[in-house]
Design brief:
about 300 residues; Multidrug efflux transporter AcrB transmembrane fold; Alpha-Beta Plaits; 2 domains; four-stranded antiparallel β-sheet
Length: about 300
């Protein structure tokens, strides 16, 4: 039965791969619209958290009413960029994290204790990032992302020695990253040092599948283009889906906020990588190779 389903999917893809380009193109336009709209409203494509712009983070190992806390603190500090979110483990709330800019750690803790009563020091941790240090982190993070793309572009081009296939691979990575950023905006999340690390990991995962695809289609000569692509798709999907399952499980069971950020981004970015690699890059690469083969015949 499974073999029959895979056969039908393969047949559909074989005859409709050009039409399927609509999905990644739509997803890209959707991402650009959301990010552009967010920039028009806030002046940022994606909002930064206190670790990248300065502020105070208080983590409390005790669960409370998140909405009530956020409403209370927002009224108390209307000029502060403030967020309250829960800490969960296996779907159960085990604590909360309060982030606020332009508020001292002492004042923020006092305000929290107005609602909770005195907190034992063993129940909370306080992290403070100065504005200049936060800006420095953000600048370094952007440089890291830029250097990553430049390095990837250079290595891919040197390896394949062909502009269009190299461009398709790198562009797919860019589109995947834009989608991950869009998810951040839609969920109201903020960019942190942890999420920057996750974006770098996503770039690595994404370019890996694109290089796998391009290498097998361009470098190997046995079989037809469609046959080489079919075997590559099975390998690539197995790799990506395995990673998706792993990071999804990690998201629901980890207690670390940093790991939650990383696994959340990967859990959304990797499925998007499937779309951009196997529906976008694969289709364009196939058209490129088939056109080149026809030219060689003449």
């Amino acid at each position: 039965m499974l073999k029959g389903v895979l056969s039908r999917i393969s047949y559909f893809y074989e005859h409709r791969y050009k039409q399927l380009l609509i999905l990644p193109v739509f997803l890209l336009l959707f991402s650009l619209f959301i990010l552009g709209n967010n920039y028009a409203k806030t002046g940022e494509f994606i909002q930064t958290g206190v670790s990248l712009k300065g502020g105070t983070t208080i983590s409390i190992a005790q669960s409370f009413d998140i909405k009530e806390f956020e409403s209370f603190l927002t009224e108390k500090y209307p000029g502060s960029d403030l967020s309250v979110r829960s800490l969960s483990r296996a779907g159960t709330d085990v604590g909360m994290i309060v982030e606020a800019s332009d508020v001292s750690s002492g004042d923020l803790l006092k305000s929290i204790e107005e609602k909770t009563g005195p907190l034992d020091k063993s129940l909370y941790t306080i992290d403070t990032t100065g504005p200049s240090l936060g800006k420095s982190f953000f600048k370094q993070a952007m440089i890291a992302l830029l250097l990553a793309f430049l390095a990837i572009s250079f290595v891919v081009y040197i390896y394949f020695r062909s502009f269009l296939p190299s461009f398709y691979a790198v562009f797919s990575v860019v589109a995947d990253l834009l989608f991950a950023m869009t998810v951040f905006v839609l969920f109201g999340l903020k960019l942190t040092t942890g999420s920057i690390a996750a974006f770098l990991m996503l770039i690595g995962y994404s370019i890996d599948t694109d290089i796998l695809l391009t290498t097998r289609v361009l470098k190997r000569k046995e079989g037809t283009v469609s046959e080489r692509m079919a075997s590559t798709i099975m390998t690539g999907l197995t790799m990506t889906l395995t990673a998706v399952v792993a990071v999804t499980i990690g998201y629901f069971f980890t207690e670390s906020e940093l790991l939650k950020q990383i696994t959340f981004i990967l859990a959304w970015g990797l499925p998007a990588d499937i779309i951009y690699t196997w529906l976008f890059n694969a289709a364009l690469l196939r058209m490129y190779v088939e056109k080149k083969e026809k030219q060689n015949e003449h």
